[in-house]
Amino acid sequence: MLAGGAGTRFWPASRRERPKPFVPLVGERTLLGDTLLRLQRLAPASRTTVVSAQVLARATRSALRGSKGTRLLLEPVARNTAAAIAWAAADAIGRGRDGVIGVFPADHHIPRPAAFAACVARAARAAADGERLVLLGIEPTRPDTGYGYLRLGRAAGRDAIPVARFVEKPDLARARRFLASGRHLWNAGMLLARPERILAETRAHAPEIWGALGSTLERIAEGRTVSRAALARAYARVRPLSFDYAVLERSRRVFAVRGSFAWSDLGSWDALGDQLPAQDGNRVHCAAPPVLLDSERNVVWSSTDKPVVLLGVRDLLVIQTTDALMVCAIDRAQDVRKVVDELKRRGREDLL
Fold first, then answer.
1. Which residue, 206, 235, 259, sits at the end of a domain?
2. Which range of residues forms the domain containing residue 321?
3. Where is the domain boundary, 225, 259, 293?
4. Which of 188, 177, 85 has the alpha carbon at shortest distance from 139?
5. For the chain, what is the domain count?
6. Cα separation of 326 and 172, whole Å?
7. What pLDDT digit, counting tens, does each position of 128-165 carry?
8. 152 vs 163: CA distance, rounded Å
9. CA nearest 259: which of 151, 100, 121, 128?
């Protein structure tokens, strides 16, 4: 499981020392807690590994207290997902783990865990021969412009279908065409593969990663001890690249299994609103009951005991924490990271 990231689009709830996976955005549990619970359907805690960042060690260890036996890998510095996934694969080999491993982000929302587990099982069977990298692709239910897409090749009747192309977030017209085609899936960033295949594809296609980290990964895969200092030196040379870009988009061994379960990567506050309970025409998750008068189509989220009161407003994000209040036009949700940039410029480290 990958548990890190900056989560800047979820400011002020998400902060540098407690990013998005560690925040109870949807319910009472954190997204990381929900993910751990969901993965228990697939494997016991003793066969689960969480990759996080050294700067998040305290928050991650706290989150794992109720999941005894879970292995924790702490990256010396954040280098995006390519390095993290390669390290996790090498670690699995070095500990003698046989079979397929799954890579799952810790900050997704999947309300139907049984359907998710069934799809993972299908993908694991497809990846068991060690020849394929198998992604979970989500059947699109709308022409969403906030997700990347997988364009499928032609393979009628096969469960795992070759991925012909990765497509970045499209405009609305293209998203509508993708939906109508039946040959495009949302890229959910969830992967099943044997760890040996992950390392082989990283070695073959990601020189930016392998050149800096390869010898260290080989030592780990052999079961040899690598000191924290040696790992830190290797990580310092790694280019921060996503596994999608560094490996998957360059490999010809990438397949996808169709997933029809409800899923969201909760990429922004407005996307979160789709998952929150409705109240008086608004979407709401508040520690104290809000008062909403003549107001609609707002997303209201508060972690404090101070009630939020709205009167005569529409299409707003209203986000309240103990030390900050943000009010934002809902169609500017993708720009929340600009607030974080401005706080950095002003030297407001206390709010980061």
1. 259
2. 269-351
3. 259
4. 188
5. 2
6. 28
7. 999 999 999 999 999 999 899 999 998 755 789 999 99
8. 5
9. 121
Same domain, 115 and 160: yes
pLDDT in tens, 287-337: 999 999 999 999 999 999 999 999 999 999 999 999 999 999 999 999 999
d(Cα 278, Cα 276) in Å, to the nearest integer?
6
C-alpha to C-alpha distance for 85 and 124, rounded to whole angstroms: 17
Same domain, 75 and 196: yes
In a domain, 299, yes or no: yes
Q: Give yes or no for a contact between 36 and 113, defined as CB atoms under 8 angstroms apart.
A: no
* Neighbouring C-beta atoms of residue 79, cutoff 10 Å: 22
String of DSSP letters for 220-270: HHTT----HHHHHHHHHT-----HIIIIITT-S-EEEEEE-S--B---SHH
CB 299 within 8 A of CB 283: yes
How many residues comprise the chain? 352
- Is the same domain home to 229 and 81? yes
Please check whether residue 197 is in contact with residue 129, taking contact to mean a CB–CB distance below 8 angstroms.
no
